[in-house]
Design brief:
- This protein is of the alpha+beta class.
- It is about 35% helix and about 20% strand.
- It has one domain: CBS-domain (Roll).
- The chain is built from five helices and five strands.
- The strands form two sheets. Strands 1-2-3 form a three-stranded mixed β-sheet.
- Helix 1 links the parallel strand 1 and strand 2.
- The protein starts with 13 loop residues before the first strand and ends in a 15-residue tail after the last helix.
């Protein structure tokens, strides 16, 4: 099975010079955890929830709280996003992509075709595939069959 069969497409993206707070708000508003970063149509990185958490201050002691939003507004997604982009092609086998995700500790991989973003595959997509494969072998509800028995 190839990645193109389980990838999400189209996906929300962000331009490389987008301010971090705007990208973060987009992710929250859309309920997504991965946001591919583009230069034109080319994938140059991926912004994840983990990247955003690392960019946030742990404490606000040296600066006043009101100064942080202005500083974050000057941060672009390319300064925070995971780079270089680790991606797969639409024709890569699902098990190869899963292996890359595990070995490189990634929760999402952009899918690039000749450098152009065509989709995204995440751990959620992989788990949904696993569920479908397991249920094809043993449909839900057939794992345990209860039979009424008269014990008189």
């Amino acid at each position: 099975m190839r990645i193109h069969t389980i990838m999400r497409s189209p996906v929300f993206t962000v331009a490389e010079h987008t301010p971090l707070p705007h990208a973060s708000a987009m992710m929250q508003g859309q309920g997504i955890r991965h946001l591919p970063v583009l230069r034109g149509r080319k994938g140059v990185g991926i912004l994840t929830e983990r990247d955003i958490q690392r960019a946030m201050p742990s404490t606000v002691s040296a600066l006043a709280r009101y100064e942080w939003p202005a500083l974050l507004e000057r941060l672009s997604v390319t300064e925070v996003a995971t780079q270089p982009v680790l991606a797969v092609t639409p024709r890569v086998r699902v098990q190869e992509a899963a292996r890359v995700m595990v070995e490189r500790q990634r929760t999402g991989l952009p899918v690039l075709d000749e450098g152009d973003l065509v989709g995204l595959v995440t751990t959620t997509d992989m788990l949904n595939l696993l569920i479908r494969l397991l249920e094809a072998r043993q449909p839900p509800g057939f794992g345990e069959i209860l039979v009424a028995v008269d014990v008189d």
